[in-house]
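From the pipeline queue, job 12 of 40. The input is one protein chain; the requested action is below.

Action: predict structure.
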Amino acid sequence: WKFAKEKGLKLIVVCPVYVFGPLLQQTLNTSSEYLKEVVEGSRNPSPNSYISLMDVRDVAKAHILAVENEAALGRYFCVALSVSHRDVLKSVKEKFPQLRCCAHE
């Protein structure tokens, strides 16, 4: 921020939460790795805690909108949905019953 101010630059920062959606690479991104760890039970968040989510395609749109909007300046936090870890695990169990997951529940 200091550098941008000193140089007279317009700075726009898009800050997404956990990002999910189609992957471009063969490895999991940080958000998908986190969810994998929760499902496998190696990470144990409180079932009553919440996670905020965003689709990667919507994050891309947010970047484009920020660049195209002349009035855009500063930080933009992107959150599409906040859901409890309990509901995430419930959805995983319903959609993928073959997975042995959520041992910590």
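Job complete. The domain at 2-95 is CATH 3.40.50.720 (Rossmann fold).
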